[in-house]
From TrEMBL:
Residues forming coiled coils: none
Pfam families cross-referenced by the UniProt entry: AraC_binding, HTH_18
GO molecular-function terms, A-Z: DNA-binding transcription factor activity; sequence-specific DNA binding
Protein name: AraC-type DNA-binding protein
Gene3D superfamilies cross-referenced by the UniProt entry: Homeodomain-like, Jelly Rolls
Lineage of producing organism: Bacteria, Bacillati, Bacillota, Clostridia, Eubacteriales
Keywords linked to the UniProt accession: DNA-binding, Transcription, Transcription regulation
Superkingdom: Bacteria
Length: 297
């Protein structure tokens, strides 16, 4: 499939909002969007953004992007960077339930870029081109507050808010550059133990008691700390991992009932509900779609 030069159009259905330059009236800010998805949607096709960076900030949930056949898995607090004219997509993986903000910066002209003076604009663009990490991990509370406030001001479409919102966006970009230069943080030892336990026992029915005991924390403290570091709740992470494994098992022709039992789901019906929430397909629909794609190839 040939990649398309993606140009967003204004859209607002409550769950998904896309503001374009026609609404924003800010030089350099090509678009700004937000989605709050309560169920999975179809994957994004191969595309690029002409002369524009795209920054995607995940508030919560899990999202996968693909560049040059390499997958990048993101969770809450992560920023995905797509460089100008760079082809990317979400592979064959539907976008699961998540909350995220994304915006595109057109760097073809630096005059009045984000209302900055020419020297400041050129310096910012130069530094954005030097970003080293495809996925940048951040302090999600600080960055989330900045981007939420910025989008909220722009969504009001009030001229008096435009300069304040753009100022917040510039601060967001400078903080992003700071995070890019830092050694990307690792999990704390207690949460790392819990994650290792999940990976090593993914075929079992894993309880919060088990994970809290592994980490040496109370259940309430464990849930809070896990979400802060992983960007999703423990249950969401467990189910996400189980669904990823189930995909391979389905393609290896295992029955839905045996997969449900092997991965520790209480019933095959519950397994199907969880699988569809993360992929948009029931297990049987997923197998049919994969077989159809293989036949086309």
């Amino acid at each position: 499939m040939q990649p398309i030069n993606w140009a967003d159009k204004y859209f607002d259905n409550g769950e998904r909002i896309v503001l374009t330059n026609s609404e924003l009236h800010i030089n350099g800010l090509r678009m700004f969007g937000r989605h709050f998805l309560t169920k999975a949607i179809s994957p994004l096709q191969l595309h690029f953004h002409e002369n524009s960076f795209e920054f995607t900030y995940i508030i919560k949930g899990n999202v996968t992007f693909s560049v040059n056949d390499k997958e990048y898995k993101l969770s809450g607090g992560d920023i995905f960077v797509a460089f100008p004219n760079e082809i990317h997509d979400t592979g064959s993986i539907p976008m699961s339930a998540n909350e995220m903000y994304w915006f595109q910066l057109d760097i073809s002209r630096y005059q009045d870029f984000l209302f900055l003076g020419n020297d400041w604009a050129l310096d910012l663009i130069k530094n954005l081109k030097k970003i080293q990490n495809r996925v940048i991990k951040t302090d999600d509370k600080e960055m989330a507050s900045l981007i939420k406030r910025c989008f909220s001001l722009l969504y009001q479409c009030d001229d008096s808010n435009r300069y304040e919102a753009t100022g917040l966006l510039v601060v967001f970009l400078h903080r992003l550059l700071d995070y890019d230069k830092q050694i990307q943080f690792k999990l704390t030892p207690d949460i790392a133990k819990a994650v290792d336990y999940i990976f090593n026992n993914i075929n079992e029915e894993i309880s919060l008691d088990d994970l809290a005991n592994q980490s040496g924390l109370s259940i309430s403290r464990f849930k809070q700390k896990f979400k802060n570091e992983m960007g999703v709740t423990p249950r969401e992470f467990i189910n996400f991992r189980k669904v990823e494994i189930a995909k391979t098992m389905l393609l290896n022709k295992q029955s839905i009932t045996s997969i449900a039992m092997e991965l520790g789901f209480s019933t095959s019906n519950y397994f199907a509900v969880v699988f569809k929430r993360f992929t948009t397909y029931s297990p049987s629909e997923y197998m049919k779609k994969h077989n159809k794609n293989n036949n086309i190839k």
